[in-house]
Design brief:
The structure holds 2 protein chains of 2 kinds.
Chain A: H1 9-26, H2 42-58, H3 62-75, E1 78-80, E2 85-86, E3 91-94, E4 98-100, E5 103-104, E6 109-112, E7 115-117, E8 133-134, E9 139-140, E10 145-147, E11 151-152, E12 157-158, E13 163-164, E14 173-174, E15 180-182, H4 187-192
Parallel strand pairs in A: 1-4, 2-5, 3-6, 4-7, 5-8, 6-9, 7-10, 8-11, 9-12, 10-13, 12-14
Helix pairs in contact in A: 1-2, 2-3
Chain B: H1 12-29, H2 31-34, H3 40-47, H4 50-66, H5 70-84, E1 87-88, E2 107-108, E3 111-112, E4 117-118, E5 123-125, E6 142-143, E7 148-149, E8 154-156, E9 160-161, E10 166-167, E11 172-173, E12 182-184, H6 200-216
Parallel strand pairs in B: 1-2, 2-5, 3-6, 4-7, 5-8, 6-9, 7-10, 8-11, 10-12
Classes of the chains: A alpha/beta, B alpha/beta.
């Protein structure tokens, strides 16, 4: 597996500050950010637990890192690996069944039910044999998935249920086909469903 | 109009009635499991199944929201998330007869009529906004009566879904759907036989198969 470079406490705190700022922007219409009650939101808890888990992992405190990772999975349902190196401003909207491993730039948004991670090969974050590398300001919509050693550029948006297994240039929008509506289903169709 | 505290008319009696109707819906859908006779003990046993507990918790959290205790409502919602892995936003109004067979991954953030059915991982969301930024006002999907959302279905945006609409598994609905509509997912799984036959793993497997054949002879 690849080696994770040690990350300083100051850097972890700076990233957490960026996370809080970005989340406060998104929650501007409700008074969550005012009195420190961000701590009660699972979508913030999972990010905090991941940050410290990643810090401990990079300092070779494997047991504590795994403990935090597991607590995260139990508490919020988000499976964010201690290996994952994610820049500041990370937001997870629905933490249940969000799976994240790899490397990402700042202001990453994972809506939920998806994420990014390895295919069948091991490690080497940097676009190598297993894990994806994401740029800044990437948006993964509900159920969007990035798999394998691919590069995703800055400002990329993946729409709901998009599946990406090759490189995506910066600024692009990856579509998934929207569902068709066949109105006025017949009784036979309804009973067959 | 569903900001916290604006629906104080939603009484405890109405809450109990809704939960009772949900319980009957669960009994009807799960007749194979629960049997057809609904005695008192049977009702308690149905109430203690995870899907029913999940819905009851959601109903209570909505009652708390409607009476103006936003933080407490979210506390109950998070307890529900922890227990059942379903995010049912306390601001959402759902008619009686709500049925979720498998709670894992279900997200509901919107309004719906009676007899809503959400299968596992079905999601009804506002789209690009954060769930905790919702105050119960417009922007969320509004579903009619007797809507069924299949597993991994996505319903998102400020759309209107008619009565008796069936949203198929893995469908992504982002526009209005008329009454009696059938929404089908448009991604189809393709099977390419033998596409990986030249890969090293397949060659290896083939080699061992041939050796086995020879030993049989």
């Amino acid at each position: 597996m690849n080696k994770t470079e040690p990350i300083s406490i100051a850097e972890t705190r700076a990233r957490l500050r960026a996370d809080r700022e970005r989340l406060s922007e998104l929650l501007a219409t409700r008074p969550w950010a005012e009195d420190g009650s961000l701590w009660f939101l699972p979508s913030y808890q999972c990010v905090v637990l991941h940050r410290w888990s990643h810090y401990l992992f990079s300092h070779r405190r494997r047991f504590l890192a795994r403990l935090l990772w597991h607590i995260n999975l139990l508490l919020t349902g988000a499976d964010i690996s201690p290996l994952a190196d994610i820049g500041g401003g990370f937001v997870v909207m629905y933490p249940v069944s969000c799976i994240v491993i790899g490397k990402a730039g700042s202001n990453l948004t994972v809506v939920g039910h998806g994420g990014f991670g390895g295919g069948m090969a091991a490690g080497n974050v940097g676009g190598g044999p297993g894990l994806p590398v994401l740029g800044d300001n990437v948006w993964l919509d509900l159920g969007a998935v990035v798999i394998g050693p691919v590069h995703i550029g800055d400002h990329v948006q993946l729409c709901a249920r998009a599946l990406v297994t090759h490189d995506v240039p910066a600024g692009s929008v990856v579509d998934c086909l929207p569902s068709r509506i066949r109105s006025r289903a017949t009784e036979a169709e309804l009973s067959a469903k | 109009m569903n900001t916290p505290g604006t629906d104080v008319a939603y009484s405890l009696r109405a809450l109990a009635r809704d939960i009772g109707t949900d319980l009957v819906a669960h009994a009807r859908h799960g007749a194979d499991f629960h049997g057809t006779r609904l005695g008192g003990l049977r009702r308690i046993s149905i109430f203690l199944t995870p899907p029913m507990l999940c819905i009851a918790l959601f109903r209570v959290s909505h009652w708390v929201w409607a009476h103006g205790h936003e933080r407490l409502a979210f506390g109950l919602c998070h307890f529900n998330l922890l227990l059942h892995r379903a995010m049912l936003h306390p601001a959402s109004r759902v008619g009686a007869g709500f049925y979720i067979p498998h709670t894992v991954g279900v997200i509901f953030e919107g309004h719906a009529g009676r007899n809503l059915v959400l299968f596992a991982n079905a999601t009804v969301v506002r789209g690009r906004e954060h769930p905790y930024a919702w105050d119960g006002h417009a922007g969320a999907p509004t579903l009619g009566d007797d809507v069924v959302a299949g597993t991994f279905a996505i319903v998102s945006g400020p759309i209107r879904v008619g009565n008796r609409v069936r949203i198929g598994p893995r469908a992504a609905l982002q526009s209005d759907a008329p009454d009696d509509g059938l929404v089908v997912g448009s991604t189809r799984t393709r099977i390419s036989p033998g596409l990986l036959a030249s890969s090293p793993a397949a060659q290896k497997a083939k080699g061992s198969e041939m050796r086995r054949d020879r030993s049989v002879e």
